[in-house]
TrEMBL record:
It holds the Pfam family PilZ. InterPro entries: PilZ_domain. This is PilZ domain-containing protein. Residues 6-109 form the PilZ domain. It comes from the Bacteria. SUPFAM superfamilies: PilZ domain-like. It comes from Luteimonas vadosa.
Length: 116
């Protein structure tokens, strides 16, 4: 049995949370899971390993509301998915403000969340 130890709890995204690259204004993929410090993204666009990105996405809130976030991110790794044109990518967030961190933590710890 393999024990995995992560510093931050990761909430699985149960619905589609589209991620937009703010420089190109294109949707580059969808969130697989999210923590206060980073995310797993199923990329639908070509991304460059070890590059920096500025992303925007909307976390679903209570009663149909959304929580918009804009965060800098560093692409740490990528791995081709089984479907052509898709890749699993791992990002670390950069320069997260205390307010953004609180918003992420609140969403991650919301009742009914599923974790990976």
């Amino acid at each position: 049995m393999i024990n995995e130890f992560r510093r931050a709890r990761r909430r699985k995204a149960t619905g589609t949370i589209a991620v937009t690259d703010m420089m190109t204004e294109r949707v580059v993929g969808r969130i697989g899971n999210l923590s206060e410090t980073g995310m797993l993204l199923m990329a639908t666009e070509s991304l460059v390993e070890d590059a920096l990105y500025q992303f925007q996405f909307q976390l679903p809130g209570e009663q149909g509301s959304t929580l918009p976030l804009e965060l800098g991110a560093h692409l740490l790794w990528l791995d081709s998915a089984s479907a052509p044109g898709l890749a699993w990518t791992g990002f670390r967030f950069l320069g997260v403000t205390e307010q953004q961190s609180t918003q992420l933590r609140t969403w991650i710890e919301a009742p009914g969340s599923r974790y990976e």
